[in-house]
Design brief:
single chain, 732 residues, alpha+beta, ten-stranded antiparallel beta sheet, eight-stranded parallel barrel, binds (2R,3S,4R,5S)-2-(hydroxymethyl)piperidine-3,4,5-triol
């Protein structure tokens, strides 16, 4: 049983972790333990009650000065209760002041997993997970908070979400709602987070916590390139293989806020949820508000295990696409090949070459619709530009299908150009103040997705294009942040709801799109990886990882991305050199090895490749297809980090049964009088023998024990950014 309830103690067990809460005599839901799996011990013996001065006492405590929510660990702390740390809820229940005090009301346990209306959430069959619902109630008013816990024993994952219920006869004004809180009676920890910028997303950073608040947030209306909604808290000595660590992933694609506060008594509190910088929500009598889900995981064997918990949980119980278990097509995307300068014949040339090289799909990127020969116009006019293509979309896709390729297409449905027929007809569809110049981004405006009629327009156009031709894949792009956003559909005092309503509008369209075309392969994108979050993964089994296609910078970007997200969700392409983003020249082989770290494809004019490159490309496609199962379903290990190792980066995929594995190595520096370098495999069977191949050539037989403990010697790099690839499988 994952959920054990003993009187007032709730203990949640996964295979390797235990999480515990207790309702105390004042009816407050305290948090008592989260960490390595133990028995059902009542951990409240660890609580120290003390009169700390300037720490208020709730009404139930009367003059008991040693009882204060200012230092007690809680499950869902609220503003107004005398707890001055970061909180989960700021709510005006009708008095005009933000006063709220939540006490335990009731609980329920269900088989399977709760759902969150209108929001992505992890799913499960009745055997895969259990749900605990704890209902808290305001001390005075009929205002309820339902706390949901989803327990996935197998992955060491516990999910959380909060649902607010207004059962009063008054409006309740919410100005902050965080989805989860974790209180710990320690703070000697590091926080790991993933920051960045456009074309340089998810850079790993590890910082010690300090007294006060460490916080990460996106105020951009999307999860953003700048900060990813995923953090890890770890012991000081935790590394890939040893030590305690806790992961927190928010399943949300809008702005978010994560705070880690070390308080006056050296305790730690971590909260996360929707960005509250511009948030307000009016909860009317009888209404519910659903917070996005947080997926927490614990590992006591380092980051590697934590990542595998997330990879397995997300692959099996978050990504719900028909493609989650299927082999993804190796595609060529024409963006870096042509940008806006193409016609139907050019696309057919690329398609023919793609077929010769063994690829499966051609993706037509930006520029096929409306008046769109640059990024200054056309967004919103989702009508095929037949003049530019030289044929209808149907004719083009038929010809591509005849060549033997599938066809995919790019959309940026959430946007509108001022120079578009849509804008000329419906300027009010754009998010902007009626009487002010808008704030532009990439010279475009954002559509008001909080409005049904705007979402209906987008759906009508999307579905019309989808129905007009055999389209098997969509790349869903989003190329700016929200700014000075105003909806004419919301009264002034409710503009604070806009950003969350925007995200709900987006999710509703994605939901309808996938229900209507269940076999569609949907790839997420936001100027590369500006919306690479677990919320989007629910809809998109793969996401374009970055607009930066340089193999060496991708080592960092893909390294950071791998901490939370399964590698099959990381869309990665071989592009031309000198690289279009940074001018670097890398060997074609290395570009292939780096792109095969994720879901593989090409982004260059295949018809312009040299004969040598074509031979290599053909081999790359064959290799990727041959070993696809290992890459998608194998256990992923970061073997050498691009941050700590200046000379080379390495990563491994190992089959879960240890029957086969691969290690890819990219050299990032070269030296005179070269030193020997080794890589050590993980996840093998110690006493079995493996055939070892390097770059397709047999190089020997070694035991699993030897490969894991002694490792294998790397070749001397022959050129800048050289690379190699080991494949091992059990000797028959
Ligand atoms: C940004 C994307 O990340 C690129 O791959 C490309 O699709 C462009 N947008 C097209 O405008």
């Amino acid at each position: 049983m994952g959920i054990n309830i003993n009187n007032n103690i709730f203990t949640l067990h996964t295979l390797g972790s235990t999480y515990q809460m207790k309702v105390d005599e004042k009816k407050i839901l305290l948090h008592t333990y989260y960490g390595k799996r133990t028995d059902d011990t009542d951990y409240s013996y660890l609580l120290e009650m003390a009169d700390r001065g300037f720490s208020g006492n709730i009404p139930q405590a009367k003059d008991e000065r040693t009882y204060s929510l200012d230092f007690l660990p809680q499950e869902f702390p609220v503003w107004g209760s005398g707890d001055y740390r970061v909180n989960c809820l700021v709510a005006d229940l009708g008095s005009g002041a933000n006063d709220c005090l939540l006490v335990f009301d009731r609980y329920a346990v269900y088989k399977g997993k709760y759902e969150l209306q209108g929001l992505p959430a992890m799913f499960a069959s009745e055997d895969e997970a259990e749900t605990l619902e704890i209902v808290l109630k305001d001390y005075h008013e009929n205002f309820y908070v339902h706390l949901y816990y989803g327990v996935y024993e197998k992955y060491d994952v516990i999910t959380r979400a909060a649902v607010l219920e207004n059962n009063t006869d008054k409006e309740i004004k919410i100005s902050r709602i965080m989805s989860s809180c974790l209180d710990m009676n320690r703070s000697d920890m590091d926080m790991i987070h993933f920051h960045g910028r456009h074309a340089n997303e998810r850079e790993f950073e590890r910082t010690p916590l300090f007294h006060g608040i460490s916080e990460l947030r996106s105020t951009r209306g999307t999860s953003s390139h700048q900060h990813n909604p995923f953090i890890i808290l770890s012991d000081k000595n935790t590394d890939e293989n040893i030590g305690d660590c806790y992961g927190f992933s928010l399943l949300y694609s809008g702005g978010f806020h994560m705070q880690a506060e070390v308080d006056q008594t050296n305790q730690l509190r971590v909260v996360m949820g929707i960005d509250d910088s511009d948030f307000k929500w009016s909860l009317q009598p009888g209404e519910l508000f659903y917070s996005p889900e947080v997926c927490m995981s614990y590992s006591n064997s380092g980051f590697s295990k934590l990542s595998r918990n997330y990879h397995d949980a997300f692959l099996n119980n978050l990504i719900r696409s028909a493609w989650k278990d299927k082999q993804r097509p190796v595609l060529v995307n024409n963006w870096e090949a042509t940008y806006f300068d193409f016609d139907g014949n050019k696309l057919l040339d690329i398609a023919k070459e793609a077929k010769t090289l063994g690829l499966d799909m051609l993706v037509l990127d930006d520029g096929w619709f409306g008046k769109r020969d640059s990024d200054y116009s056309g967004l919103g006019d989702w009508y095929v530009n037949e003049k530019k293509l030289g044929c209808s979309l149907r004719e083009l896709t038929d010809r591509i299908n005849e060549i033997g390729l599938k066809f995919g297409i790019w959309f940026e449905p959430e946007m509108i150009s001022e120079d578009s027929d849509l804008y000329r007809e419906h300027p009010d569809f754009a998010l902007k103040l009626p009487d002010r110049e808008p704030v532009r981004g990439r010279s475009q405006l954002v559509l008001d997705m909080s409005r049904k009629e705007v979402c209906d327009y987008i759906k009508e156009r999307l579905f019309a294009i989808m129905d007009s031709a055999n389209i098997e894949y969509i790349k869903w792009d989003m190329n700016r942040s929200l700014a000075a956003a105003y909806s004419i559909a919301l009264p002034g005092e409710r503009q604070g709801e806009l950003r969350h309503r925007y995200v709900l509008g987006l999710y509703s369209i994605l939901e309808e799109l996938l229900n209507r075309y269940p076999n569609l392969l949907l790839e997420g994108c936001s100027g590369g990886g500006g919306r690479f979050d677990a919320g989007m993964l629910y809809y998109c089994p793969q996401i374009w990882c970055s607009d930066n296609t340089d193999a060496i910078e991708r080592l960092h970007i893909q390294y950071g991305t791998s901490f939370a997200y399964p590698m099959s969700s990381v869309s990665a392409h071989v592009s031309v050199c000198p690289n279009h983003q940074n001018g670097r020249v890398t060997p074609f082989k290395t570009r292939g090895i780096c792109a095969m770290q994720g879901t593989f494809g090409y982004e260059l004019d295949l018809s312009k490749m040299t004969e040598d490159e074509k031979i290599l490309a053909k081999e790359q496609v064959e290799t990727f297809k041959k070993h696809y199962k290992l890459f998608q379903f194998g256990d992923y290990y970061r073997i050498e980090s691009p941050i700590e190792n200046r000379d080379f980066t390495a990563w491994e995929y190992a089959d879960k049964n240890g029957t086969e594995a691969s290690i890819s190595v990219v050299f990032t520096d070269m030296h005179g009088n070269h030193l020997p370098h080794f890589v050590k495999f993980k996840g093998l069977l110690s006493d079995r023998k493996y055939n070892v191949c390097r770059d397709g050539e047999f190089v020997g037989v070694h035991t699993g024990a030897a490969l894991m403990n002694g490792g294998i010697l790397l070749p001397v790099p022959k050129e800048n950014y050289d690379s190699c690839w080991f494949y091992i499988c059990l000797e028959e």
